[in-house]
Amino acid sequence: MFRLRSWPVRIVLLSTVLVFLSCSRDGGQGAENGGDSSKESLVLYCGRSQSLVDDIVKMYEEKSGVDVRIKYGNTAELALAIQEEGAKSPADVFWAQDAGALGALSRKGLLQTLPPVVITRVPGLFRNTSHHWVATSGRMRVFAYSPDRVSLDDMPFSVFELAEEKWNGRVGWAPTNASFQSFVTAMRVMSGEERTENWLRGMKAGGAKSYPKNTAIIEGIYAGEIDLGLPNHYYLLRFKAEDPNFPVEQSSFDAGDVGNLVNIAGVGVLGSSGNATGAQKFIEFLLSDEMQKYLVENTHEYPVIPILHDHDGLLMYEALEELAPPIELADLEDLDGTLALLRKVGLL
Amino acid sequence: MRRRPPWYLTFFPALVSIAVGLPIAYLAVRASEVDAAMLREILLRERNLLLVRNTLGLMLGVIAGSSLLAVPLAWLATSTNIRGRGIVTLLSVLPLAIPGYVLGYSLLALGSPYGPVQELFGVTPFARATGFWGSLVALTLYNFPFLFLTLRTGFLEIDPALGESARALGLSPFAAFRRVTLPQLWPAFASGALLVGLYVLGDFGVVSLMRFETFSYAIYLQYAASLDRAYAAWLALGLLALTITILAIEFRVAGRILLERAGKGSRRERKLFRLGRWAWPAYTFVGTALLFSLALPIGSILFWTSRVRDFSFSDLLPSLFDSLSVSIPVALVATALALPVALLAGRFPSGLSRGFERGAYLGYAIPPLALALGFIFLTLKSVPFLYQSLALLVAALSVHFLALALSPIRSAVRTASRSLEEASRALGRGRWETFRSVSLPLLWPGVAGAGLLVFLSAMKELPVSFLLAPLDFQSLPLRVYGYTTEAMFAEAAPYALAILMLSSLGATLVLRVSPGGAR
Question: Is B80 helix (H, G, I), strand (E, B) or coil?
Fold first, then answer.
């Protein structure tokens, strides 16, 4: 029955051979941290998008001679994959878009403690207490507004004011946006569940317009649909880079207001990494003056080290630290509770 | 006397069932990590009812919407003298090549004050489509080709002699259509509708853009927002239970009818219906359907392409290579695996063979993220050297897309005559020789359709590739997604365009070799 010349048998044999050929081609290197090649290599799982990261990685490869192998993905999905991989993870470094995913991996004991030389590079605002990860860049929640329709006297001191009657029908937000959601989480932590729910309900009753993303909020202000919106700080800066006369401005609420929440993108080294030294070198590179300036200029994000920069529209580190609400980013882990609240209020 | 199937007709389907079963076993492992109190809370949440209602409502709606588009299009493209039947066929398949989120974005942009329509014409013609209706329209517009392809095979396989006999026996043309032709189309319709239904059950991309909460959206949020694998596993198992119910219904409805041709085995040449004064309404219908399903998304892509500043073709090449190095093997493997599954179930019906067939459909219903996590878990436990290899990605996607290959082949097996095969065997041809020279030519339209469906779907696949692809892997959809999440539509456009062109090329080739296709 199992004659070698019969077609089904041939198909089985051929596909077996093909499978082994294709795993010998790319399987080995992925699973073994590239121990077989002469060049040192580093495996990066990257939750930031490729368009922001590609050039930085190329610069690092040129400078260090290290071959960086990358898996791009969504931050949460990569964090799930790392949990599933456990001790066998091929990854050395995880570069995440938000603190939540890093916090989850840190609590599960999947990240290494970073050496003081890395940790002390950034101020307290930008690292977690267990020293498992550091921020690489920051983004601040702001309010963007039309200077024609919002006078200086009208400027809100606190995000809570926006639920008041005088703002009815004038405000836009993006409830599905991850940064907005972590802002709501921060509000729940700082002001309590009830006050947050009341604020959300008040905003909704006042006709706050929901936009699919932050850029649409800015466009909404430009188009006159709304007078004021709640985006991250860098979207308007990107518009301004294209057109310096773009007729929208932005500002911050009073110092310490939850509406000024600072979110981060950050990195950690996997506990399972066999190349911790290489991983730390990569992080040191990201935190170098040179790369921090590069980030500021190309993504309009905040640097995480107090370097001098004269980039239009960005605050200096001291101002940023003063304005930011006093909250530990690791406390913003209860996204599930926030989503439940947003659903309850009818915003998701 | 019952014949016993040859070993390979049992071996491969058994292999498939194991491959589908493993990720489900993984879900069970994760699901068992929930403690009892939590579980009670999970299962009794009122929200689950809402999820079931939303999911089923959307599924039925999309099936209905797809039928409204696909039935007339398939009939026009196969059975009438409409001009350019080949083109109509090709264009009716192509919406499958458009990634769901591209269509979603362009529909949203239609109603947006900053979209291309607004910019070009200064008007916003539609309200922003979101929620149930937005999801319904978007999913219908790119899922109707599933139904079109199976119905097209169905129309081509209809034996006109039956209809003519019915007329000769005194039935009116309409009654003959209703009582003879329509029942012959039923299995094709059912298997196409099943694919549409399964797709809607599993879709995450469109419903998340339109913010309509279905099961798979809730599963994704559970994974992504809480990084929680246990509760998500329960939701995924719930979705699988829903799928099994739907499969049971479909098999009950479609499995009853015996459709193979008796008699001489070769069917008569079909006569084409002359449209006459109905030609213009027909063209208008085709034009409108394709305007929304094709012209709209392609228009958006071209609009963005026109804004590309610096782009070099050499950036595109690695992505082209990566995409093809997955899509083609997946199409071949999935089709090759579906063939024995369908043949076993069609030729040697038994509880076991039907079980294999149903099991194969489940691979499509496992949420992609859960499937990928399952494969990570299982590979690292058993064959770590395969982890992040191309072979693993091809295997996982083949399991995932098997259902797509199974549907067209299954309906082809149903209608292909068994007596021809028996005659060939009786005349002394071997089993394999018979398969090659008699069965395969009869099954060919189904096989070609199967390969095409899988190829088109694999070309735009995201969630499984995200997690299981080798390091440094950059297929076209991964690039498109990477740019669109940063709202860099112009940078994404060339990659989206490449997906479209490769997919059209694949579709043209496959339709050219299948009978009655594009000429």
Answer: strand
For chain B, say whether A81 makes contact (Cβ under 8 Å): yes
Predicted pLDDT at B1: 42
* Mean pLDDT comparison of A30-39, A281-290, B289-298, highest-scoring range: A281-290
Hey, which residues does A264 pair with through a beta bridge? A138
Taking the CA of residue A348 and the nearest CA in chain B, the distance in Å comes to 7
Domains and CATH numbers, chain A: 39-139+262-314 (3.40.190.10), 143-260+330-345 (3.40.190.10)
Note the pLDDT of residue B397: 95
- Residue A75: closest C-alpha in chain B: B224
Of B108, B377, B432, the CB nearest to A84: B377
- Residue contact B483–A51, C-beta within 8 A: yes
Q: Which residues of A touch B376 (CB under 8 A)?
A: 81, 84-85
Q: Which residue of A has its CA nearest to B129?
A: A212
- Six token digits for residue B254: 């479609």
pLDDT for residue A193: 95
Q: Is the pLDDT of residue A36 over 80?
A: no
Decide yes or no: CATH 1.10.3720.10 for domain B7-257+275-513: yes
Chain A residues within 8 A of B483 when measuring between CB atoms: 49-51
Contact A79 B384 (CB under 8 A): no
Q: What is the mean pLDDT of residues B259-288?
A: 70
pLDDT tens, position by position, A186-243: 999 999 999 999 999 999 999 998 887 788 899 889 888 899 999 999 999 988 888 8
**Hey, where are the domains in chain B?**
7-257+275-513
Residue B260 has pLDDT above 80, yes or no: no
Q: How far is B73 from chain A (nearest CA, A)?
A: 34
pLDDT, average across residues A85-89? 92
Q: Smallest CA–CA separation between B470 and chain A, in Å? A: 7
The complex's ipTM works out to: 0.84
Cβ atoms within 10 Å of A116's Cβ, excluding its own: 9
Between chains, do B386 and A23 touch, taking CB under 8 Å as contact?
Answer: yes
Is the per-residue pLDDT at B510 higher than 80? Answer: no
3-state SS, residue B26: helix
A42 touching chain B per CB within 8 A: no
Residues in A 138-197 with any Cβ partner in B closer than 8 A: 176
